[in-house]
Amino acid sequence: MKTNKNSKITKHFKEVYEVLATRIKRTDIATLMGFTTTTQLENVLTGSALISTKAIQNLVERLKVNPAFLFTGSGNMFLPKEVPAKKTKTKYKIWVEIERIENAGTGNETYANEDNPVGIAYRNSIEDAVQLQTLINNTFGEIM
Predict the structure, then answer these.
(1) pLDDT per residue over 18-75, tens digit each?
(2) pLDDT at 66
(3) What's this model's pTM, rounded to 2 decimal places?
(4) 49/33 Cα distance (integer angstroms)
(5) Selecting from 3.30.1560, 1.10.10, 1.20.1280, 1.10.260, what CATH number does the domain 8-72 have?
(6) How many CA atoms, within 13 angstroms, populate the side-chain half-sphere of residue 72?
(7) How far is CA 18 from each of CA 38, 79, 89, 108, rounded to the nearest angstrom?
(8) Which run of H or E residues covers position 42?
(9) Given CA atoms 65, 66, 71, 76 in this order, what sign does their dihedral have?
(10) Which helix (DSSP H) or strand (DSSP E) does residue 121 occupy?
(11) Phi, psi (5° rounding) for residue 22?
């Protein structure tokens, strides 16, 4: 049987195994790699058997081993944990300022010198925001 004691991938796999063995039982590592016995795992560790493509795939997918580390020894030993994208909720804000206008439409308009109420409305969709803006425009005239 061909030995593989000095292969880079065997060397890097041994390093990965040493870390995994502090966290996971040997039988579980073998199972997660797709082996049916721990003897298969031992054969890879001793270099008496080559690690299979399927075992490498399982290391990456199930145990989050960085394939670059396995093949080259560079980079982090494990892939970064996947963090779910933060869910964002979109809201649409409509801001309405109401002013009192004296002599509206006469050409001699004056604006009342007082604090003007401001209304802010939030809507969950652009359609709802447009509908509210249309209602405001129809009620008070178009806002300029």
Answers:
(1) 999 999 999 999 999 999 999 999 999 999 999 999 999 999 999 999 999 999 999 9
(2) 93
(3) 0.55
(4) 14
(5) 1.10.260
(6) 6
(7) 15, 17, 44, 87
(8) helix 38-46
(9) negative
(10) strand 118-123
(11) -80, -10
